[in-house]
Amino acid sequence: MAETLEQVGILADAQPKIAVVDKGYRGVEINGVRILRSGQKRGLTRTLHAMIKRRSAIEPSIGHMKADGRLGRNPLKGALGDALHAVLCGAGHNIRLLLKKLRLLCAQILASLQDWLVASAAAPVIQTPPVV
Fold first, then answer.
1. What pTM was computed for the model?
2. Best label site of 36, 44, 69, 113, fewest CB within 10 Å?
3. How far is residue 22's CA from residue 26's CA, in Å, rounded to a whole number?
4. Tell me: the pLDDT tens digits for 88-121?
5. Where are the beta strands (DSSP E) in the chain?
6. φ, ψ for residue 71 (rounded to 5)?
């Protein structure tokens, strides 16, 4: 975990003060970094609790990307290939979510259009006599 925090410090140009991790990091301590573990209850403010919940919400997305989005196997070589593959898998996941919402929207539009057509076909037709 120390290497990961060092990399975060390089990328963000600031050393992290808080790390949110899962229960597998129980017993790990790093000087200058407060470690929050999922399921932790003691000593948490609302903000820190929200950070833990946000991390827990991201976990299923990563699992879906590994299973459905080919994040598990990387055909690209090197560190740049790893970075590109992660970004492209995230973009593909977001596009799949957008397409799912668009399919739902199209289904709702078609259903309302069908209801309107059925209602207009069932309405009685009033014919006015020709004006002489």
1. 0.59
2. 113
3. 8
4. 888 988 999 999 999 999 999 999 999 999 888 8
5. 18-21, 34-37
6. -75, -25
**Long-range CB contact pairs, 31-40, < 8 A, 24+:** 33/5
What residue type is assigned to position 104 of the chain?
Answer: L
The type of residue at 91 is A
Task: Tell me which residue of 36, 27, 82, 31 sits closest to 55, measured CA to CA.
Answer: 36
Question: pLDDT in tens for each of the 132 residues of the chain?
Answer: 778 888 888 888 888 888 888 777 777 777 888 888 877 778 788 888 888 888 888 888 888 888 877 777 888 888 888 888 888 888 988 999 999 999 999 999 999 999 999 888 877 777 777 787
Place of tokens 């470690």: 35
Estimate the crossing angle of helix 78-122 against helix 46-68, to 10 degrees. Answer: 90
- Contact (CB, 8 A) for 28 and 52: no
**Lookup: tokens for 122:** 């069932």
Q: How far apart are CA 132 and CA 118, in angstroms?
A: 34
